[in-house]
Design brief:
This protein is of the alpha+beta class. The protein contains 31 helices and 39 strands. The strands form 11 sheets. Strands 13, 14, 15, 16, 17, 18 and 19 form a 7-stranded mixed β-sheet that branches. Strands 28, 29, 30, 31, 32 and 33 form a 6-stranded mixed β-sheet that branches. The longest helix has 19 residues, at 842-860. The radius of gyration is 36 Å and the shape is globular. Residues 844-956 form the Methionyl/Valyl/Leucyl/Isoleucyl-tRNA synthetase anticodon-binding domain. It is found in: Cytoplasm. ATP binds at residue 772.
Length: 994
Amino acid sequence: MKYFPSEIEAKWQQYWAENQTFAASNQSTKPKYYVLDMFPYPSGAGLHVGHPLGYIASDIVARYKRHKGFNVLHPQGYDSFGLPAEQYAIQTGQHPADTTRMNIEGGVDKAGNVIQGYRNQLDKIGFSFDWSREVRTSNPDYYKHTQWIFIQLFNSWYNKDTDKAEDISTLTAVFEKEGNATVNAVCDDHISPFEGSEWNAFSSEEQQQILLQYRLTYLAETEVNWCAALGTVLANDEIVNGVSERGGHPVVRKKMTQWSMRISAYAERLLQGLNEIDWSESIKESQRNWIGKSVGAHVEFRIQNSEFRIPVFTTRPDTIFGVTFMTLAPEHDLVAKITTSEQKAAVESYVEATAKRSERERMADVKTISGVFTGAYAEHPFTKEPIPVWIGDYVLAGYGTGAVMAVPCGDERDYAFANFSKGTNGMPEIKNIFNQDISEAAYGEKGGFELINSDFLNGLDYKTGTKKAIEALENMQAGNAKINYRLRDAVFSRQRYWGEPFPVYYVNGLPQMIDKKNLPIVLPEVEKYLPTEDGQPPLGNAINWAWDSEKCYVVSNQLIDNVTVFPLELNTMPGWAGSSWYWMRYMDAKNEEDFASTEAINYWESVDLYIGGSEHATGHLLYSRFWNKFLKDKGFAPTEEPFKKLINQGMILGMSAFVYRVLWSINGTDDFDNSILPNVLVSSSQRKEIELLKLELNKILLKTYPNRNDLLVREISFSPIHVDLSLINDITNELDIEAFKKHPLYTDYANAEFILEDGKYIVGREVEKMSKSKYNVVNPDDICNEYGADTLRLYEMFLGPLEQQKPWSTSGISGVFGFLKKLWRLYYDENGSVVKDEEPTAEMYKSLHKTIKKVTEDIENFSFNTSVSQFMICVNELQQLKCNHRAILEPLAILVSPYAPHIAEELWHALGHSGSVALVDFPIFEPKYLVESEKEYPVSFNGKMRFTIKLSLDLSATQIEEIVMADERTIAQLAGNTPKKVIIIPGKIINLVG
């Protein structure tokens, strides 16, 4: 009976689906275990073999925990809103909901493309997901709860005294009684003080305006990354080298009124929470750096002859007497207000140029120095000396206060800036306040100096100088001690169609929340997914997008009267909105009233194991922790942290293939156009033979232009071109030239000349990120079809440690497939089952229990690759021992089950069992089977080993001596002599001396 994986796997996948084998219960006497995979985005490209790596690992753990008696929640769903679906809709005219559904469920789309479908691909690999809890963020029954969470944030403020979010009503109660003087809140800067009587006298609109300055989600004019071509704001991680990651379009910085979230309120809790969770230190450090806690001072510099003040945060208040100039971010609010008429043109030109550079580009570029003097001067708080105010793009408006007090003697970037502008209007000589040489570079250390030229700070060190400077600033009310965070409030608006609609309408320009009972506010139909002609977001194209506040539903825009019918918000939420709480929805996915019941949330609490890519180190993981902490403050989440343990799987890399196009220049008359040279592709190793290659190229030139013998090759270089892997022999790396010429991707090379080696074109190979654009993608469906899903699962684990990058090579798959066939033959031969009920030998038990011990330890330590090796060792040993014994093969099938579940189910069934092996207890390691009962002793004569003898470990030294002395080999060695001494250490050595 042969092993046919395709039949077996289809059979058991159907069984699992029909019997809901992996459905978790929200009520169980078993201990709970929650295993989660990072939310996948369902693209039309489908899965490649790199995608399932983390899913296979999490599935092994989920299956293992079920075997160990846990009630396991292992759900799956789709992060299905996002820019890619919207861009595809713009290109093809298909509704994003249709293409998203097609990408998930599979089929043929309206453009005639065959879509495999994520769900089909995932099922084919045999994951033990509880599909009864599937969620899709783009479904209204999901995003109604995202809208509800947004409303909770809007109706909350952060109380620093209690260190948590509270309902906005508690804030208004304070305002009514005593105004805002005693309120200790995270809020906007520079809020005007008012008394309780003043608050009560304010109009409703004035009160709403003030509350917006305290709410955890609020409207504000914010500097954003605007991409006109995509018609939307982009997050920093959606920009690469100053252009949009999608499409490569220009991005500029501009101010827009946006919804923002006060994640900054949670900065310290986000920082401290990292000490409580089991994550890799690299991920924790990324988050610490992103949060960026700094201890220092807030200092205010008054602009001369004006009421304006420049607030700065500095970690070095001890250096305040070294301030030579000030630098504002080009987009700082004060720039336009303080710039003199003489400097206006230069400043405006610089501001315009800076807007074309992303924040990330400006932060990364430490070499380029640029800036412009505003013509204004600030006043030093102590000396009252004038300090020139510049703008420079190395200062960012969103970091700190958007202004720095420049101390060139103590900061390398200020030092470079001062020297770059040295001798120009508005740039004084550098002041040195350290008893150290700064002629060549700034002195940036916090030790090893005494302050000089620093008035009352002279002679002090960093620590004492900082303390005294802050005391003096506080005494004169020019500054104070402060803790600052780099973490900024998160922009929460996107000018896109395919995202969660805000549950917001506007009365006299002020936002009003829609009641929970009227949610969801569903995305309207629009004719075009692009922004409107007057620059409004795509929802501006909707015909029915107004809120009737009396009837409480969406109506035609034509009915807007600003009395009972009002305009709805035109922006949508960002992609991270739905992914910031999805693990909680899995706990109670079918709940129609609430995002999850209190009972379900209290039962599952938080995720025990989270597996996903490290690219989400700051974005998704930080926002998720923020929302979880907020929901805990509001009584909706039981734990402070959402994910107890996090593992980042390494990337599976693809083996790309390249052909090499020759780039050549020609010696000859001036009338020859190099652009009409023929395309020539050179085989990989031939690139090294430059002189021979030139001869070949000259032959091609002469053949192409027979009347131009004056043309000769001068210089050559090579341009690598990715080749579709289907066009090469994966073993020999030979290119199928004819297929290449006919391939639609390479029509430019249909008439190309090929320079071969030994009559063949050999491609170059290189390990790169697996990507459809590099044509190095391997489809897991192909592996499953040829070898089976169990082979794919084992092979991906066998490639190496989970957290490391690993190159993919199909050459090793046959070995893993061969292992599964060997495993099968322990249970079956050509005639059927060979399993017998005889008692196994000690060696058989030893092999099994070595494997139980190793696999148990490996899964607990997430070292899956070494388990696969141990399975191979065990099967080889059992094969040599001719083991077909039920007492060995039953536990072996269970052991294999988390890794290769389909074959394990079939073998378990063949052993006469009913039901699924997935729910059977995991084998227990028994140390007694690894205890050796015998020892093979080396028997030595005068220290030289002459033979070995196998003896029981229970024998005493006297018994061992009797046996050894009676052995024929000993008698022959002694040749009638009597040894002077017999040295015996039981379990170790036997040595006869003399």
